[in-house]
Amino acid sequence: MKFTAFERSLQGTGASRRLRFAGKVPGIVYGAGEAVAIELDHNALFHALRKETFHASILEMELAGKVEKVLLRDYQMHAYRPLVLHVDFQRVDASTKIHKKIPLHFINEAESDAVKIDKCTIEHVVTALDIECFAEQLPEHLVVDLGKVVKGQTIHLDDLTLAPGIKVRTHGRKNPVIATVVDAVAEEIIVAPVASEEPAKGKKGKK
């Protein structure tokens, strides 16, 4: 995915505020050389941030007529307005070793015996994994194939097939659970009691 950035000469709170008022977003690109202050078109960046690819893949940034490979590292949003306040990028190359959270894509869930035959549901316990690899190996997402899961099964990290060179950082957890098959819940039908049609007997009044 490619985007365009421009060098930013003025810095500071006041300059950043004026940039935002003009529809721009201040940012910085660092790594593999000198850090450079940049600015980007707000609307283009805002829409790019809504795409999964922009967060989890190597990007091509055109800056001053030169295209560099970068990785989105951080961004700040306004507390309650749809406004991007700042963005950080890191330069990368084939030799750069990085770690980043990568989303999981679950496929073939409806085709599994657990869902199709036993009417179970599959709970996605984890939706992203923190991986470590060289920049050129960074995947946009990791695939979890649920097509062969059965009733009562639990899918762990060791059950996933990862490309060579990709290591998952589990932060001390050994073989964490990725997804689990949950048995179908039987519906309990509660029948409300039928009110008696016999009229209530009242006390006879005195004549």
Explain what you see.
The protein has helices at residues 13-21, 42-48, 52-55, 113-116; strands spanning 2-7, 24-30, 36-41, 59-63, 66-77, 84-91, 97-107, 121-124, 128-134, 142-145, 154-156, 167-168, 177-182. With 207 residues, it is mainly β. The protein folds into two domains: 2-93, Ribosomal Protein L25, Chain P; 98-182, Beta Complex (RNA Polymerase Alpha Subunit, Chain A, domain 2), CATH 2.170.120. The strands form three sheets. Strands 1-3-2-6-5-4 form a six-stranded mixed beta barrel. A four-stranded mixed β-sheet has the order 10-7-9-12, with no helix packed on it. The longest helix has 9 residues, at 13-21. The model has no long low-confidence stretch (mean pLDDT 86).
Features:
about 210 residues, mainly beta, Ribosomal Protein L25, Chain P, RNA Polymerase Alpha Subunit, Chain A, domain 2, 2 domains, four-stranded mixed beta sheet, 4 helices, 13 strands, about 10% helix, about 40% strand
Q: Give the mean pLDDT.
A: 86
| Total count of domains | 2
Question: What is the H/E order?
Answer: EHEEHHEEEEHEEEEEE
The CATH superfamily of the largest domain is identified as Ribosomal Protein L25, Chain P
Low-confidence runs? none
Large-scale geometry: extended
How far apart are the termini?
96 Å
> Strands of the largest sheet, in order across it?
1-3-2-6-5-4
CATH topology of the largest domain: Ribosomal Protein L25, Chain P
Q: Would you tell me the structural class of the helices and strands?
A: mainly beta
